[in-house]
Design goal:
With 395 residues, the protein is an alpha/beta fold. It folds into 2 domains: 146 residues, ATPase, nucleotide binding domain (Nucleotidyltransferase, domain 5, 2-Layer Sandwich); 181 residues, 2-Layer Sandwich (Nucleotidyltransferase, domain 5), CATH 3.30.420. It is built from 15 helices and 14 strands. β3 and β4 form a beta hairpin. The protein is globular and about 60 Å long.
Amino acid sequence: MNILVINCGSSSVKYKLYDMTQQAELAVGLIERIGEVESRISHTCAGESTELSEAIGDYSVGVARIIDLLTTCGQPPPLSDPGQIAGVGHRVVHGGESFAESVVVDEGVLAAIDECSQLAPLHNPANLAGLRAAMAILPGRPQVAVFDTAYFQSMPPAAFHYAVPYEWYAEEKVRRYGFHGTSHRYVAGRAAELVGREKPNLITLHLGNGCSMACIRAGEAVDQSMGLTPLEGLVMGTRSGDLDPAIIFHLAGRGMSLEQIRASLEKQSGLLGLSGVSRDLRDVLAAAAGGHERAALAVDVFAHRARKYVGAFLAQLGTCHALAFTGGIGENSAAMRHRILDGLEPLGIRLDAGRNDRRAAEPFPISADDSRIAIWVIPTDEELMIARDTQHLIA
């Protein structure tokens, strides 16, 4: 069974084709700068990569080009005919309270995704455009929506409500939703296998340009660091994470527009804003090692915020069976893993320095003491999770 996975961003489409019978990746690619005069296409199949520049005017053209590449590139190409695609899985950022699991798409689902666009104006319209394009280009092929927010619909009211007028929730849907759910769900499943428990208590840390943490009790998410939007929570590449909301009023009173403040908090804050160097932790760590004071501050604040959430989630769980790192930073920065967990020995966390000093190509333990909380580095695979959901729903 061949499953195509599509992830539409604001001006890009990532895609992967899987043979689910073999759990094998057949092709992977990316189209960037959709809607510009010259778009860029990267396509890899059977170890051979193709780089192209051409005009991709919209998502319909982009999805059609993906199907063309899958049936023409390679010796032989992975598909001889588009009809060999059994189904298409789509990443959808926001499902609101409508979806607690992945679903086969129909007109009602499309309408619900569109309604959630007010909660994710940068993402849901693009996700919806990709869905409609695939439905038109592959008529009769089932389309499956996999929501970033679905995994966190198990959070109890005490965890997802803000202490604001209840009408804001009832009428405007203001609540904590949580994001990166597909990644956290994949990592939680692998962690359960690795610790040998069907429904363990876990803390998962997805650390990349976007960062989030999940608190999982008996196999279900009970809390998460992100909120109404992906801006809340941890320090990120360009996002501020948690802050006093009165800061917004203070800056507005000093003459900044709401749009300027929003752009600053989303695109000019985080590691970039603090360090003045880069949004990439590798660059910030290098600058800090060279004596750059603001870069050193950014590293400290990043680790401090994450450590606070680890402590808070440990307090919620009481007993924690494992803690798992994933994402570009979580998988590859031993230095940041160590900074986050350093000093948490009294809470049951101890690092084995030799095990910690590695980059992730596959899961590996960084805590060797069975009497302590197990600590793992687990490479995430959101696309495979989407492909599995799609296979399950259309089989």
